Amino acid sequence: MSTTFDFSPLYSSMIGVDRMADLVESALRAETHTSYPPYDIEKTGEDSYRISLAVAGFTPTDLEITAQPNLLVIRGRKADEGEGARTFIYQGLAQRAFERRFELADYVIVKDAACADGVLSIDLVRQVPEALKPRQVPIGAGGGDRTPILQSSKAKAA
Questions:
Q1: Is the dihedral of CA 100, 33, 55, 51 positive or negative?
Q2: First and final CA of the chain: distance in angstroms?
Q3: For residue 86, which of 52, 58, 104, 146 sits 20 to 30 Å off, Cα-Cα?
């Protein structure tokens, strides 16, 4: 069974979908078998979201969040404890290093991050610049000195 899709019909009638098609293709290629650490994504408002990762056993100093345009990377690495390392009889909490990547839509930025009770919460918000928001275009009353360009060119030639 093939998982490749042909997006070429979209390119003939839509402008700018090449980025969207690339995102879909990269999501299909991404390794989906990694389930560590488990996470939730929730919509908390019209333009706000929260990612919650289960990071039991990790401290805020063991975690790193990197926000880039259209990409959020979360890494976790346990620091070596050196000589004072604890001796476990049984260790059920996963302590392995991880990296989670999230593709972000345009204008989605990281607003805040907090780690409490073994859960890392990252708040995101979509902030569209004022210049790109829809705006009302006033319609003039017309009249007066509005001369079609074609007529004014003929008048100048005469």
A1: positive
A2: 72
A3: 52
For 20, list phi and psi in degrees, rounded to 5: -65, -45
Q: Are 43 and 108 in contact (CB under 8 A)?
A: no
Q: What is the DSSP string of 59-85?
A: -GGGEEEEEETTEEEEEE-PPP-GGG-
* Per-residue pLDDT tens over the stretch 48-60: 999 999 998 899 9
The structural architecture, per CATH, of the domain 35-80+88-131 is Sandwich (2.60)
CATH code 2.60.40.790 region(s) in the chain: 35-80+88-131
- Which pair of tokens denotes residue 131? 């210049």
Q: What are the tens digits of pLDDT across the range 106-125?
A: 889 999 999 999 999 999 99
Task: Indicate yes or no: pTM above 0.85.
Answer: no
